[in-house]
Design brief:
The complex is a heterodimer of chains A (79) and B (321). Chain A is of the alpha+beta class and 79 residues long. Helix content of chain A is 29%, strand content 33%. Classes of the chains: A alpha+beta (79), B alpha+beta (321).
Chain lengths: 79, 321
Amino acid sequence: MSALKADAVLDLRGVLCPMNFVKAKLKLEGMDSGQVLEIVLDSGEPIQNVPKSIKEEGHRIVEVKKEDDHFRLKIEKGQ
Amino acid sequence: MDRFIEDKTTKVPVKLEGQEKKLDFMELKTGGFIKQRQKDLFAVRLRCPGGRMSTDKLVEVARIAHRYSKKSVVHFSFRQSLEILYVDYKDFDAMIGEITKIGMKVASCGPRVRVPTACGGCEYNPNGLTDTQGLADMVDKKYFGTPTHHKFKISFSGCPIDCARTREMDLGFQGVVEPEWDEPPCTGCTICSEACKEDAIQSDPDTGKPIYDAKKCIWCGDCIRACPTGAWRAKRYGHLVRLGGKHGRHPVEAREVALFVPDEKVPAVIERTIEWYLANGIRGERVAKTIVRVGLDNYLKFMEPVFEGSALVGRAEKEAV
């Protein structure tokens, strides 16, 4: 279904701001640039805040899928 | 704690700038020396535009405060300045000398343009849309102390969260950004409609692409920051200008008078607004009252050469009803 293969997956459903972002950030730190992290975020506050913080850190959101009350995002690690 | 001022002295002899002078306690207030209820003791208010200070200066200020405050305390004022408490007026001369030496100045009270306040702004705050600190510094250098009919407070907020409370200022500038959307990079991911806290963006049920309602938009830029592909971008940045707010015993919410005023027009807005206030206001009257007495239309008409297309005539009238 999805063209991009994720190198790691992080389910952040039920994790509150800003811990969801911190967890994603830590995970990304352990990866190489160009690798893809898939995260699952709740709607509401998490989806309002986490994507912009990820962008501010210099990563690229390459795919977004809405699934019921949550979002599946693919993040390509920046330089 | 005593409820009434113990010391009613208003004039004392003192040595200032090496000369014997008679000091008027009431006059001192205009210079930022504020009489405390304790005999001979004053709060000395320093000038900290935007509440920002280098650590070098802060260390020096701490040293001076520690030396001259009889109780070793300072107070962070509501307008972001630092007040050294419990200073004996006999120490003023020596203390001002030290304050001047480190490049700090004493603030003021009374009917004049006060030290501007500001939030962190776009320099380091992720929500910030305007360089509030740079603008506060400019206002402090250019307009601080300008005599007016009553106190005249200016503040800068970098975004619609409005931490610097531009709604309560005589003249306030709040950062805004106008979002613009481009179809090609948009993937219909719907994050923008989730990110918008104002309900100004709905997602098309079929394509997921945004349906934007400009009337609900408060120009915060959340959509631009959240958009993964850059389909939402900033068309222009500027200030939402508010006039005639105040707090105090009878708070008044400021009127919105202009939108998307660019940085370079801020000095002209301040100058012409003060010109209007001086011409139309009366002594002891805040701008809030002048607007009610003279009419906002009169102000907007006067401001036309500065505001041009950015005046908020309709909106302001609607709010006034």
